[in-house]
């Protein structure tokens, strides 16, 4: 479930938006009345969506947005009189007066987008560190030297052993290095 932070300068506005969201199935993780509170809550949660107004006593929405961690989105609820017409890329804007269906639909769309982005990031292979690359290289060299394999064959052998044993390639390479160097 996606974390939602509700942030408005007036506590009454924040509570009203929170109640609307909770009634429509969203998990509101925090209700804030200042920009600093919103940023602190976002830092603690790491990912989610900040639903907020335009101005706070300590910040305006774009300053909050700049301070948010990478996994956070922002839904700005603003009246036309406060709107300058420009919002940073990544900020979704809804005009007031607000219709509940518009708020819920927009937030659902943002949640879906965040979920897709998270899945995409998880599916990307993790970059190996230099140490991990070195261990795999050593294991390949040992296999090439001892078993007279080509580099491609040594790499495939480590991959196959890794899949067969249910370990990652680095762990398999470490086992090969420790077994051959005995």
Provide tags for this entry.
182 residues, five-stranded parallel beta sheet, Arc Repressor Mutant, subunit A, Rossmann fold, alpha/beta
Provide a descriptive summary of the structure in words.
This is Response regulator NasT. InterPro entries: ANTAR (IPR005561), CheY-like_superfamily (IPR011006), Sig_transdc_resp-reg_antiterm (IPR008327), WH-like_DNA-bd_sf (IPR036388). Residues 116-177 form the ANTAR domain. It comes from [Clostridium] celerecrescens 18A. One of its GO terms (molecular function) is RNA binding. The structure is a single chain. The chain is α/β, with parallel strands linked by helices. It folds into 2 domains: 3-123, 3-Layer(aba) Sandwich (Rossmann fold); 130-181, Orthogonal Bundle (Arc Repressor Mutant, subunit A), CATH 1.10.10.10. 55% of the residues lie in helices and 16% in strands. The protein contains 7 helices and 5 strands, in the order βαβαβαββαααα. It has helices at residues 11-23, 35-45, 61-67, 100-123, 130-147, 151-165, 169-180; strands at 3-7, 27-32, 47-52, 71-78, 91-95. A 5-stranded parallel β-sheet has the order 2-1-3-4-5, with helices on both faces. 26% of the residues are buried.
């Amino acid at each position: 479930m996606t974390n939602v932070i509700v942030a408005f300068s007036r506590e009454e506005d924040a509570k009203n938006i929170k109640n609307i969201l909770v009634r429509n199935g969203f998990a509101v993780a925090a209700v804030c009345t200042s920009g600093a509170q919103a940023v602190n809550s976002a830092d603690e949660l790491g990912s989610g969506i900040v639903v907020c107004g335009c101005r706070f006593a300590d910040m305006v929405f774009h300053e909050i947005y700049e301070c948010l961690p990478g996994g956070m989105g922002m839904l700005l609820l603003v009246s036309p009189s406060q709107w300058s017409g420009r919002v940073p890329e990544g900020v979704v804007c809804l005009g007031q007066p607000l219709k509940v269906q518009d708020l819920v639909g927009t937030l659902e769309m943002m949640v879906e987008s965040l979920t897709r982005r998270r899945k995409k990031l998880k599916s990307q292979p993790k970059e190996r560190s230099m140490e991990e690359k070195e261990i795999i290289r050593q294991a390949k060299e040992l296999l090439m030297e001892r078993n007279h394999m080509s580099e491609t064959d040594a790499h495939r052998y480590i991959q196959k052993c890794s899949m067969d044993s249910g370990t990652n390639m680095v762990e398999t390479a470490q086992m090969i290095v420790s077994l051959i160097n005995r």
